[in-house]
Amino acid sequence: MEQHEAVGYRTNNRAAGARRTPYLAVVGLMWDHAEFHDKSSKESSRELWQAWNGFAERHIAELVPMPVAKRNHQWLANDLFISYLFHSGEEQPEQGLHELALDIASRLENDFRRERARKACLVPTGRLRVGLGALACDSEGVGDDVYYRAMKQAIVHAQSEGGAGQSERRRYFQELVESRLIYPVYQPIISLRSGDAFGYESLTRLPVNSWFGGPVDLFRYAEENGAVYRLDRLARELAIDGCLKLRSDQKLFINVMAQIMEDPRFSPGRTISLLEEHHLSPHQVVFEITERNSIEDYPSVKKALQHYRSQGYRIAIDDVGAGYSSLQSIVELRPDYLKVDRSIIQHIHCDDVKEHILTTLQEVAGKIGAELIAEGIETGEELDKLAQMGIPYAQGYWLGRPAPFPE
Question: CA geometry: angle at 405 spanning 373 and 288, to 5°?
Answer without folding.
Answer: 35
